[in-house]
């Protein structure tokens, strides 16, 4: 730093000495002007400030020879100006000297020549004289230091050129040779000063930093003030304090305000407020420090309790069991595997938070190492654990089971097999009991239909039909006796033998009346053929209904309670296979053009003209009179296997192959009123049992 | 269709707030919120439907009642906490600036909150408070035994110790202690105060340090509340008992480790007047009956121990006034329940001996051996009316010395050592006294009568110590199968040894019991091994084979008849079909619990059977040796 500054100074001095005429651009220009004015006024006060001001500058013929040459005829004014300049200069130089001295003491730099003090020839006073500046090595190092004189320009202008600028004589300064990276690296290693050097753009080479520059860098790094000379803690210059410097005269001539000597009314009010509070005891100046520390106890529960209900007390911890004893019975001590299991389980999962242990004497019982933790966890429970109020059930679990009549009270019902009869070699497909309970018919796959007498157990008669017997059913009427046998695409109406004559005649009259009812208007695919009453016998079916071809084997025959209508489901495809036959009118009709799903079962409502159709999952109820769907019951059963309706017609039970039984109350919703699970494995007999269970 | 409802404006979403919302609403720090919750007894609630309470989010949070938080908002303690926050800032600034005088004045006017209103609010009646002091007592007793450190100030410890002593004094004074249990965790005490059972746990006397995984601040906050609560409760208890609260503490005695004895119970003087305590009747802490003989003895012992310079606290009370002071605690005595069943006349009331079980040890004088814990047994013996002394190594204040003639029992807990250099006098004294292990005292208290000392004698293997709290119906009772070995069954001997006025028929009943127990075992026996064990036992109990066989037969028959309902199980299954899903699940849960409990009992019982058999074989071998 010192270098440039020195340069600057020297330049300034040159400017002072050489370039008078040029307008001043230093910071002093203004001051100079002021002084000039004061000088013009001719005041003599300057003398007091600076003794040197009045000195008449002695013009050294050696130093100012040029100036003298330039301005041979100087007017007095000029001289005066000159003189001023010199004064300026002197002052400046003095200060610089000062700094220079510091510098020298700091780092042994000797840049400025020393001044000599001589007696002026003209004024006769002492005067400092500087040695003349010689334009060689000693005087100014700027030429030597910076041969490149291109000035402060962007150096990349010279990037393409072999030289980097021009020296003072206008000769090219050639670009110094720069090695490659390796050379640079080697240089950094070899040269001990390389780490304190920086790239100089003008010289295009690394120049070691001067001591001042390094010092500046250090100061910037340490966040100090960059200027080493600047002293932030300079002692203040006392202008008005201290002996002899007091200001005697007032700054202004205004009279002193009243508030300086009249007591404030507001202050008085404030003070009086406090005083009154102290008198009344509202403010205790020095509070007695007795009661605040120690809690004072008194009869807090003497006054009436509030109407609020007390908050629920926290649940108490469980009281210790025998296992927590210091000397428990042997059976409470954990076995090795129990201990191991206890140690392996997580702390939170343990049933007991301790391992029972037995000590032979009380003095051997150690401190319980989890004591504080347990107390702490209890406290955490108290304030951190969510609580929920639960009513503890103090009931006998058996009281939850609904009371049903014991099956024993429903006796008598068959409890053992009394009789078994055999069909030869084939499977029996269906069986039906006559309404009076005396007769049973059964049909098998080979087309044999047998009539059995229930009490005796004897086969009374056997019929042979061609094809399998799909279903057979007694007519529920009691005044007539016959049953229906369903074989492939055909229904046979058979009158059992040995009937009393009036019943036989009545039956014959029903099945083959003397005058047939008129044929329906639309021709039906179902053909009714009957044998005349006279020629009929119990050997042959008296009436045969031919179902439409390819309707297959009927699966089920369902009678209406009154015995006039019967419905059949055919297993074959086409029109759902549901047919309703009316015996009195000798007419058959298919009520559904199309039924969704495979029809499993059908059922007549006992009192109303309603008709239940069970598909695999749903039970649909149709009104036959109005010919519309009433309801669809959702049983929630995968595959419905059986269905029955209460004799009064209000309830329906539906059983499924998945061992569920749904009980519908038809007046309520279409969802089951109750579902019995794992109830039965449903079969034909099972279905009968259901009825007993639920409706009797 | 009703009015459209906006979501989150009613119902659970409005009734519950999460913790962070509560803190935000109260504008306090989480620590302050925690403190408030502890002091006010506010705890999180479990909403029926968490998702609905959390406005659709299922993030795991704790919920508080919105109303609880609303009440907290104008809690005076919260205001004080805010003031404290401001105070802390001011103080820190004053200290930072070095303004010592203003810091001092700030410190003097520090905001301090009081918990009186909270106590009154949480416990509207005194009974409520007594019902809930279990945890408070446990904490007080724990902190009374802790060493003080940087977090736990010595004054706090001192206060806790004082409260603990006051409670013990009250219990001893009113003879309210009912059950004691020496567990591995500490000593459980149960007392009956104002018809409320109060159970507290006291750790054994060891120095414990607060572990690092425990938040001391939480404990201290609880302790703050508990100290206030107990202060008020004790005030009421003491004043109701006609005593001065707080009982004056003799610091000199306290320094010489007199423990509870450092406090003296003073009766409240209703005559009123500034007279000094010259007329004040200073009761002995336990309020025991002091005969003139005792007084003389004590004087003697004092003269003997002048060198010790330990002033024994000397009750200067005449026994008559003492008698009047004893308040009769209505408490059904377990030994003869018909006594309380009859309506008592005034005369009968006078003639009734003061309930024997609470004055169990009144005829006896105990000496504590050096290795037994003095605070425990001093408390136990004195609350059951006994006198107790201890060596100077266990602390000062013993009312008599070891060579006192009146000592009947010595509580000793060290193995038997044969002393060779025993003087004649010492031997005689040793034979006159009964040396029992500490468990004897506790078992006597739990049994409600003085047990035979023999099984508890010094150096003997102790019978198991059972919890008095396990009186749940159907719980496994380890004493059932033990038959003749059971110590509590040897009362007929006891009635000879000691002149405890037990009703005759009671003793007879007890005598008949072992046989009954044996027969019961026979009845309970199902498999062959158990039957054999029962047979052995019956033989040992002196039941002849005929009666044994008969009972066994009967039991078998009964078992068969009890099997018949099992036949109906299929019927029950049928009925179960009609249960709704919810009911069935509940039923199954209950059945599961029942089965688990049964398994627990049976597994313990099985072990018990095994131990029984082992025990029997020991006996038979002994018999063989004798033969």
Automatic annotation (TrEMBL), chain A:
Residues 336-349 have a biased composition (Basic and acidic residues). SUPFAM superfamilies: WD40 repeat-like. It is found in: Nucleus, Nucleolus; Nucleus, Nucleoplasm. Residues 1-147, 308-349 are annotated as: Disordered. The keyword rRNA processing applies. The keyword Repeat applies. WD repeats lie at residues 428-462. Component of the NOP7 complex, which is required for maturation of the 25S and 5.8S ribosomal RNAs and formation of the 60S ribosome. This is Ribosome biogenesis protein ERB1. It comes from Somion occarium.
From TrEMBL, chain B:
It is found in: Nucleus, Nucleolus; Nucleus, Nucleoplasm. Pfam families: BRCT (PF00533), Pescadillo_N (PF06732). Residues 488-509 have a biased composition (Acidic residues). InterPro entries: BRCT_dom, BRCT_dom_sf, PES. PROSITE patterns: BRCT (PS50172). Residues 269-289, 460-521, 543-575 are annotated as: Disordered. Residues 356-458 form the BRCT domain. Its main location: nucleus. SUPFAM superfamilies: BRCT domain. Keywords: Nucleus, Ribosome biogenesis, rRNA processing. It comes from the Eukaryota. HAMAP family: Pescadillo. Component of the NOP7 complex, which is required for maturation of the 25S and 5.8S ribosomal RNAs and formation of the 60S ribosome. Component of the NOP7 complex, composed of ERB1, NOP7 and YTM1. Within the NOP7 complex ERB1 appears to interact directly with NOP7 and YTM1. The NOP7 complex also associates with the 66S pre-ribosome. Belongs to the pescadillo family. This is Pescadillo homolog. The lineage of its organism: Eukaryota, Fungi, Dikarya, Basidiomycota, Agaricomycotina.
